[in-house]
Amino acid sequence: ATPTPTPTPLLLALPFLFAALAAAQSRPFGALAGAPPGYERYVADATATGAEEEYDYIVVGGGAAGCPLAATLAGPGGGRVLLLERGGAPAEFPALATAGGFVRTLALADPSPDSDAPAQAFSSEDGVPNVRARVLGGGTAINAGFYSRAHPGWFHGHGEGAEVPDWDMRLVNSSYEWVEQELTFQPEVHGWQAAVRAALLEANVTPWNGFTVEHVTGTKIGATTFDASGRRHSAADLLAFARPGRLHVAVRAAVTRVIINPIDPAARRGRSRPAVAAVGVVYQDRLFQLHHALLRPGGEVILSAGTLGSPQLLLLSGVGPANDLTSLGIPVSVDAPDVGKHMFDNPRNGISIIPSVPIDHSLIQVVGIPSANGTASYLEAASYIVPVSPMLRPAGPFISPTSPLYVTMATIMEKVPGPLSEGSLWLSSPNPVETPSVRFNYFSRPEDLAQCVVGVRRVAQVLQSRTMDIFRSSVGSASQGRRGHARRDFRIVGATLPLDWSTNNTSVADFCRRTVATLWHYHGGCVVGRVVDKDFRVMGTQSLRVVDGSTFSVTPGTNPQATVMMMGRYMGLKMIAERHSRRQVNTSSYNELEE
Ligand code: FAD
What we know:
- By secondary structure, the chain is α/β, with parallel strands linked by helices.
- The strands form 7 sheets. Strands 1, 2, 3, 10, 11, 12, 13, 28 and 29 form a 9-stranded mixed sheet that branches. Strands 7, 8, 17, 18, 19, 20, 25 and 26 form an 8-stranded mixed sheet that branches. It has a 4-stranded antiparallel sheet with strand order 22-21-16-27, with helices on one face.
- Helix 5 packs across helix 12.
- The chain starts with 8 loop residues before the first helix and ends with a helix.
- This is Glucose-methanol-choline oxidoreductase N-terminal domain-containing protein.
């Protein structure tokens, strides 16, 4: 029972499904949205902020890392904080509030720098469509909500001689817990997710680990940021932890550059110390007015603009490969050849079917981890209900133009962990609101392709399990099948596996290359040891750090958001402790700050 193609008109109609989705009316999401998250009192449109103001910390990018970081820096022991986010607030976009809005948000992703859509579409130079967040909460406001910690080995580094932050594991764990108490829930698993759980176990992805946020070998249920009523909780909710009066959040504030000045030689202690320092940022509001935010003495600018945004801003600020910057007419502040280099994306490949029995909508809840050290592809699944009615309306007199028709698709996918294939990012224009160009060079390293081949075979084994039989449809006539029954097979949407998938590496490798997609876990560009040091300070500068997924050379665990949010909290506490130790105030214990 190899998964084989079943001709279906819906297969041909797939591009229309998404167009139909875009045309569909929004459901009453607002009714489910519940009470305001409590941080809204800190948020203002950038047009309402001053032309020039001073802060202890300026955080650029209100995403998975930026929100917990800003909230912590504006919490106990912290200072006056400005958080600048180029997008709007999540409450403005009802589809973000529920799991059901996930597909709709992606279908409406808009590449234009002038659009307000919370998901910004882009295509890498590899030709793989992708999205990036453009909203307060960042990826956590538009993502699939699956929450799982990094595997412990991730904190010890990747590869021989690779530089590693000196992670304080006690603080790592308490920072994870801080995030989890506010944002995570145990999902109720049924339908497609329950079937995939049973099928993974049948395919020997064992043991069964039940519900856990830890990264453990076998099959498990992870946490989710959607609560029991299906309402999304995002990193923006964490902003409520700031002390009133300390945190200022400006939305629709697109930072155009970091202001980097030479350090007065008299104040520079030693020739080995950086010769330049960040003193503030310039940002643009939606009316194209420019604002300046400046640092108070001892303050810091922290870039948390994500994997595309942070390297882009360093380049626009003159921190990057000198020749590239000069050719774009950008004055060089620091010749930093690795900015925008070492860009990675985890290839995703999978099989989608139209199941023969109705199933519910489900985002990722169950994950298969065939080996805990991150060497084998992870397996995840989702099911979507998508409307097709606009396409079918002309089909007959009994279909009313107002009665929607929905079809369910279910997917099982594998994601190559820590890919070795790497690419780069570069400025395609000096315009700060344009997405930079990026190439990930998927499968340029044979090791990644070999992992994909093994992962895709596991997907096929999961589909072959007895549990999955219920989702097969009858095909052909009874006389064609065995024992007088019609043959049952999967109605596959999109690419099908080669018939010889179990024996032919070349044909499966070809499937991997042809069907490569993203799981949106791209990372790199400001990698530790190359662009930032172990404390996430930009090398060659003072008062400037990068704290977000762009610093990773390997993405943590099965899915990164847990660790990116943990990192925001962790670095906030570290930075406050450092600032106090510089001032020699006795706050040696993080407990005081974690109150
Ligand atoms: P982001 O969260 O992207 O934050 C960067 C922020 O900076 C954005 O809000 C952006 O608008 C802002 N910004 C950028 N440039 C500027 C500028 N010049 N000025 C001002 N602001 C700027 N991970 C999981 O663990 N589980 C999942 O289920 C999951 N599903 C995903 C589904 C999708 C569709 C996507 C896109 C991602 C998903 N992820 C998931 C990945 C996860 O959301 C990201 O890894 C994480 O959000 C990265 O965090 P970050 O802080 O590095 O960047």
